[in-house]
Design brief:
By secondary structure, this protein is α+β, with helices and mostly antiparallel strands. It has five helices and six strands; from the N terminus they run αββααββαβαβ. It has a six-stranded mixed β-sheet. A hairpin with a 2-residue loop joins β1 and β2. α2 runs antiparallel to α4. The chain is globular, with a radius of gyration of 14 Å. Bound molecules: zinc ion (ZN). The site of zinc ion has 4 residues, from β4.
Length: 156
């Protein structure tokens, strides 16, 4: 399992924001969350996070069939690389390094807690365990907000 940095060390570990990117080829097609008629087969991610994320997606493909992925919303890509500050802050978002991935933002809105977020339900347990096995952090599971989001850090 990779040992990811904590958020403040992201720049030291991953380098300059928006750099060192590569394409992750998905084992299943995803829909763009903001334009569901469009599907993607790959997306841009940091080189150091690529192999780990690829292992996670392979396990997700094994654990959930097409129908289950659609029910859970993990076939909806909400973004990975996006060079921008954290919402409400001046620090960069982990998306700025392409080390965070969002799923189904509509049903997992930023401020929603486990009572409302789709990915807080029991059928998402395996999905989160897969990411956690690779050392990734879910803000939903650790801090009960932003349930759309998973990142290659050990948290704050
Ligand atoms: Zn995010």
């Amino acid at each position: 399992m990779p040992v990811w940095p904590r958020q403040p060390q992201a720049r030291v570990y991953f380098g300059a924001v928006g750099k060192n990117q590569t394409m992750l080829v998905l084992p299943f097609k995803m829909k763009l969350a903001w334009d569901k008629r469009r599907t993607i087969e790959k997306f841009s991610i940091h080189e150091k996070a690529h192999d780990s994320a690829a292992r996670c997606f392979a396990r997700i493909a094994d654990a959930y069939d097409d129908k289950q992925r659609a029910e859970l919303g993990i076939d909806l890509f909400g973004g990975c690389l996006n060079v921008r500050p954290m919402r409400g802050g001046s620090e960069y978002s982990m998306h700025a390094w392409g080390i965070a991935i969002d799923f189904d933002p509509e049903r997992n809105q930023l401020k929603w807690d486990k009572r409302r977020a789709r990915l807080a339900r029991p059928d998402a347990e395996t999905f989160w365990t897969i990411w956690e096995d690779e050392g990734w952090t879910s803000l939903g599971r650790t801090r009960d907000f932003d349930w759309m989001h998973v990142e290659a850090t050990r948290g704050r």
